């Protein structure tokens, strides 16, 4: 009798052990999977110390660059927030308008055509917890409606487990987007100052609240034992209006800024524009193209916003390290496009000149062999989606139009590839030596980047064979 009882106990123990083993095996596990931290910064041109601008104070982004690989020749696929973020989040070329992602969402809702998953949705289906904070898609928080807070209108459907936008004292996400200190909301651009500096801590401007929420989400996500995380954080500054706490503006007291390169309005047909977004703000009757002292003020306030954004990056990276998640997290820092500060007599983005399309990108992952390397390989925003798949071991989808940059990260002398960008009126292709811009009416601009003239002299009529070659390459890339 005793022997039977002992056997039953052994059987029960074996059954319990098998059940426990089955339960553990059936649970999703994050073991071996790397997290992703994507930091998007609005209107950030590559004017950082780690990109050669010695007069800029950007210690936190510089530190990330010192630990990772910085892509000195990264180009976006559109010179505006909405379409550029479309390419980031989908890995595909798309519409040139700021509502590009909402147009995609409408197609999903109608269900009459196949729409490929977005990058966060793709990672979600591969076991990741996906969270966005701040301005990751075009609307901060990823919602539509008159104040960008309508939960029934989602900019990127099926993408995020949480898409968060703390509004603090700015009333709504739309108010945060163009907010100045202490809850000031833009009602009419002409009634809002184009730049501002106010005494106070980081929380008197919108990015303080965004960063605080990002830190909170990092703490939660880093304790999840089942799922790796894909956390995207969108910092608004240095987007217009240029507002930052006074401590950041004070960093530039007595600092000499270099002269503006090629400040003249270009001759002939180009994608030049009259800087409407900038000029619509209150400028106290001043024009930076005519008033050099005012131009210097604008540039210093932009720099202050860069340093303010840099401080938010520092807090996020510090919290990543404090949680210990830094040991297993890939970090990508990305500027959604460039910004003219007087070059070609433009103050803003929206052109197809270098200044609108050239933005910083830095990639870091634990154990990388080439820390601090600066690669001059030409790459484009489309490449981020397949690169993150490649680095995490997630399957690279066939529908993405970019290429993985893993080889460049492992062998930084690897050459890159041409980069394409577009507006509704023209498209452009950038190679290691030239930029060609093709207008809808067939007019061509060709600029030689091997000369000091760069994008100030159209040489298309002198290089007809090269123009033909680049037209074919442009068409092939965008088909």
From TrEMBL:
Cellular component aspect of the GO annotation: cytoplasm
Cofactor annotation: Ca(2+)
Domain Sulfatase N-terminal intervals: 34-394
Family matches, as InterPro entries: Alkaline_phosphatase_core_sf, IDS, Sulfatase_CS, Sulfatase_N
Presence of keyword Hydrolase: yes
Pfam families linked to this entry: Sulfatase
Source taxon at top rank: Bacteria
PROSITE patterns, per database record: SULFATASE_1
Signal sequence interval, chain numbering: 1-24
Keyword annotations of the record: Calcium, Hydrolase, Metal-binding, Signal
GO molecular function: iduronate-2-sulfatase activity; metal ion binding
Similarity remark: Belongs to the sulfatase family.
UniProt protein name: Iduronate-2-sulfatase
């Amino acid at each position: 009798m005793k022997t039977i009882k002992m056997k039953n106990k052994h059987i029960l123990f074996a059954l319990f052990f098998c059940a426990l083993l089955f339960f553990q095996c059936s649970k999703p596990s994050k073991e071996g999977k790397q997290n992703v931290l994507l930091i998007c910064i609005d209107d950030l041109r590559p004017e950082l110390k780690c990109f050669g601008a010695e007069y800029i104070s950007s210690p936190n982004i510089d530190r990330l660059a010192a630990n990772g690989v910085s892509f000195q020749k990264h180009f976006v696929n559109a010179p505006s927030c909405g379409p550029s973020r479309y390419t980031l989040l989908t890995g595909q070329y798309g519409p040139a308008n700021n509502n590009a992602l909402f147009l995609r969402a409408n197609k999903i809702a109608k269900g009459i055509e196949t729409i490929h998953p977005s990058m966060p949705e793709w990672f979600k289906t591969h076991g990741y917890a996906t969270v966005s904070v701040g301005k990751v898609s075009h609307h901060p928080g990823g919602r539509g409606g008159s104040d960008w807070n309508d939960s029934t209108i989602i900019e990127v459907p099926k993408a995020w487990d949480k898409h968060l936008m703390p509004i603090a004292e700015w009333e709504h996400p739309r108010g945060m987007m163009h907010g100045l200190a202490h809850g000031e909301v833009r009602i009419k651009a002409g009634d809002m100052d184009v730049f501002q500096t106010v005494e106070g801590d980081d929380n008197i401007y919108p990015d303080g609240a965004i960063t605080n929420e990002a830190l909170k989400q990092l703490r939660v996500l880093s304790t999840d034992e089942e799922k790796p995380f894909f956390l995207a954080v969108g910092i608004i500054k240095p987007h217009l209006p240029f507002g930052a706490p006074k401590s950041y503006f004070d960093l530039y007291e007595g600092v000499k800024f270099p002269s503006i390169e090629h400040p003249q309005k270009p001759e002939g047909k180009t994608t030049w524009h009259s800087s409407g977004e900038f000029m619509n703000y209150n400028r106290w009757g001043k024009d930076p193209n005519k008033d050099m002292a005012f131009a210097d003020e604008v540039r210093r306030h932009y720099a202050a916003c860069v340093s303010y954004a840099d401080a938010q990056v520092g807090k996020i990276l510090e919290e990543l390290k404090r949680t210990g998640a830094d040991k297993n997290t890939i970090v990508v820092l990305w500027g959604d496009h460039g910004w003219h500060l007087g070059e070609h007599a433009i103050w803003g983005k929206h052109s197809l000149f270098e200044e609108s399309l050239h933005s910083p990108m830095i990639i870091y992952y634990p154990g990388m062999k080439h820390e601090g390397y600066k690669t001059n390989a030409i790459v484009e925003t489309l490449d981020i989606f397949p690169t993150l798949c490649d680095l995490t071991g997630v399957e690279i989808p066939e529908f993405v139009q970019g290429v993985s940059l893993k080889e460049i990260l492992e062998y930084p002398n690897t050459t890159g590839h041409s980069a394409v960008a577009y507006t509704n009126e023209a498209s452009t292709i950038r190679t290691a030596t030239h930029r060609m811009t093709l207008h809808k009416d067939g007019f061509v601009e060709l600029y030689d980047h091997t000369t000091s003239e760069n994008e100030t002299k159209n040489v298309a009529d002198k290089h007809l064979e090269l123009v033909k070659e680049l037209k074919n390459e442009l068409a092939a890339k965008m088909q």
